[in-house]
């Protein structure tokens, strides 16, 4: 018997006893049992909500100088959600190639790598945006589940807000993917200094972050990085074939960008660049899996 079943058994037995006596379980007892059964989800939802709060406080202009540590709390909270979801997916660690391969291909491992890359450096511009938008989607996802379980009519305004976020979820996921791609361009300018150590740090960080993008590109659950890469390559190809495009940029595209992208995932075909079906939010929907 699993740990969750051991924890839930007393509550479930109490409900069965009440029902056997002809008395339906109280509303408070039912709510308590629901929270116990889904405690990991609600802990994750609370941490995601803290990510939103930390980011908002960090972005307030007159508080930024005093609350710069909110930037690092955001990264830590993001790391905590990734670790908790990894623990939820992989209940028991194993030392074998198959387990390590599954672990490296999991989206939560990629999220954890993203946070760890930037935690040791001064605040980077726009690093917070993918984390904030992901937190917004996950909080809305858990919020819809809570509203549907309690009473949809009692939280009408809140539900409309969640539905508005769900309506824009495709655009939000595209913004996340685009931001993560263009951060690769920001890193050298943010870390580069006129010293050997600064140059080495920039190169190492770019290499590690490029590996993160490769993992994102190869993700089986989230196709948006592949979608955005495909669209960017298509637009770059259109502009590079124009007569007004400088020859140096055209050569850069065909000699560097195209080979680099083709090596990311040779097995990825054009038909893989598909949009996920709606709805994206809700229990066991698209957002729940990434």
From TrEMBL:
Keywords in alphabetical order: Membrane, Transmembrane, Transmembrane helix
Key word Transcription regulation present: no
Membrane topology: Multi-pass membrane protein
GO BP of this protein: endoplasmic reticulum tubular network organization; membrane organization
Gene Ontology CC terms: endoplasmic reticulum; membrane
Subcellular location: Membrane
Signal peptide feature range: none
InterPro entries per the UniProt record, alphabetical: PER33/POM33_regulator, TMEM33/Pom33
Family: Belongs to the PER33/POM33 family.
Protein name as it appears in the record: Transmembrane protein 33
Naturally occurring in which organism (per UniProt): Daphnia magna
Organism placement in taxonomy: Eukaryota, Metazoa, Ecdysozoa, Arthropoda, Crustacea
């Amino acid at each position: 018997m699993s740990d969750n079943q051991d924890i839930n058994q007393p509550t479930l037995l109490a409900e069965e006893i009440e029902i056997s006596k002809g008395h339906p379980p109280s509303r408070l007892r039912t709510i308590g049992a629901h929270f116990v059964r889904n405690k990991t989800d609600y802990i994750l939802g609370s941490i995601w909500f803290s990510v939103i709060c930390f980011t908002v406080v960090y972005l307030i202009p007159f508080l930024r100088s005093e609350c710069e540590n909110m930037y690092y709390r955001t990264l830590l909270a993001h790391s905590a959600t990734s670790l908790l979801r990894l623990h939820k997916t992989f209940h028991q660690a194993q030392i074998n190639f198959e387990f390590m391969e599954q672990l490296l291909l999991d989206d939560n491992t990629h999220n954890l790598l993203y946070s760890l890359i930037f935690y040791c450096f001064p605040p980077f511009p726009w690093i917070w945006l993918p984390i904030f938008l992901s937190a917004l989607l996950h909080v809305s996802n858990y919020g819809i589940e809570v509203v549907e379980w309690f009473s949809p009519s009692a939280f009408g305004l809140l539900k409309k807000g969640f539905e508005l976020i769900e309506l824009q979820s495709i655009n939000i996921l595209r913004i996340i993917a685009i931001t993560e791609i263009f951060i690769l361009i920001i890193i050298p300018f943010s870390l580069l200094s006129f010293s050997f150590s600064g140059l080495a740090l920039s190169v190492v960080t770019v290499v590690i972050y490029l590996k993160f993008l490769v993992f994102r590109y190869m993700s089986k659950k989230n196709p948006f990085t592949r979608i955005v890469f495909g669209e960017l390559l298509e637009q770059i190809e259109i502009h590079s074939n124009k007569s007004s495009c400088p020859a140096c940029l055209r050569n850069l595209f065909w000699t560097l960008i195209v080979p680099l992208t083709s090596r990311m995932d040779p097995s990825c075909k054009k038909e893989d660049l598909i949009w996920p079906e709606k709805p994206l939010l809700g229990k066991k929907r698209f957002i729940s899996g990434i």
